[in-house]
C-alpha cells in the first residue's frame, strides 16, 4: 500500500531573480513501511519535494500544480486540497520531519526534557491523562476521572491553587514517558539529560533529542532531511543505526534525504535519484547499485570513493533553476547526450518491474514542458 502518492507535482519560488523551477513534474509513491532514500547533489530539489509532500513549502514557494495524497487506514487525504488547520493536525502527529541542524530545532532557553514533554503533551495528552489516572489518588483521581467538559474539571483548571491536582499527575506521567524515550534513543543517564539545556549537549546528543521529539507522537511517516550532515563520521554511523532501529521498532515509513550514496546504500529499500527538480530514476537499492541506468545515477555512483579506483566527479554543477536547460536538464553534463535530449524532456517511464528511468537511452517518451 502507498502511504503517500505525489502526482505531477510542480513547485515554484517567486524571487527577485525570477521564478525558481524547484520541482518540475514529480511523480512519487511512498510504500508503507519502506525506507525511501532520496539522493542528488545540492540544489536538486530533495528538500523542497519533501516539503511539498507535507504541503508545507515555505514562502515565496508554492505548489503550482499536482496532487499529494496521504493514506491512513483506508482513508485518503488530499493534502494539496486540505485547509491548513486540518493539515497541521496531520503534521507532527502523522507526518514528522527531522532537520539537518538539531540546534536550530531546539529552543536554547528550555531544558531538553521539557521540550520533548511538550511535543508529547501536544499530540498525546489523552494518553498521558489516562496513564495519570491509573496511578493518581485522592482528589487528583476524582478530577482526572471526569470528562474534560465537566464543570468541576473546568473550575479546577482555572484555579491556580487547585490546578496542580489536575496537571501534576499528567506531568509526572509525561516526564516518565520522556525518560523512556530518551533511553530508547540510546541517551546515557536520561534522568540527568532531561534537565540539561541544548548547549550542554553534543551535536549527536542534540540530534537524538530532536529524533525523540519527532517520534514522540508515533508518526506514520518520518522525513529525515540529511540528519547527519553536521555530525562527525562515528556519530553519523550511530545516528544511522538508531534511525534504522527505531524504524523497525515503530514500523515507521521513512523518507531519508542525503547527497551521500554511501548513506543511501546503508539505509534505503528503494532509491529516488533527483536532478534539478526532477526524479531521473527510481528503483530498489540493490538493483540501482548493481545496474544504474540513468547517466546521472552512474555518475553519482562513480563519484563514491572506493579503494583501488579513482574518484570520477561529474563535470559541471546543478544548473540555476530560474533558467534550467531545455529538454533533459542533465544533458549539458551528460556524456551520452543525443540531439533529442536538448529539445525534448524525457518522461519517467517504467522500463522494467520496479525500475523507472527518465532518459531517452531507454525509451522515447517525452513530456510537454510548461
Ligand atoms: N526559500 C527559497 N527561495 C528561493 N529558492 C529556493 C528556496 N528554497 C529552495 N529554493 C531553490 O529550490 C531548489 C531546490 O532546493 P532544495 O533545497 O530542495 O535542494 P536540495 O536537493 O534539498 O539541496 P541540499 O542538498 O543542498 O539540501 C534550489 O534551486 C533552491 O535554490
Ligand atoms: Ni535539502
From TrEMBL:
Keyword Transport: yes
Keyword tags: ATP-binding, Cell membrane, Ion transport, Membrane, Nucleotide-binding, Translocase, Transport
Domain of life: Archaea
Catalytic activity: Ni(2+)(out) + ATP + H2O = Ni(2+)(in) + ADP + phosphate + H(+)
EC number annotated for this UniProt entry: 7.2.2.11
Membrane topology of this protein: Peripheral membrane protein
UniProt xrefs under InterPro entries: AAA+_ATPase, ABC_Ni/Peptide_Import, ABC_transporter-like_ATP-bd, ABC_transporter-like_CS, Oligopep_ABC_C, P-loop_NTPase
Protein name: Nickel import system ATP-binding protein NikD
Species, as recorded: Korarchaeum cryptofilum (strain OPF8)
Lineage: Archaea, Thermoproteota, Candidatus Korarchaeia, Candidatus Korarchaeales, Candidatus Korarchaeaceae
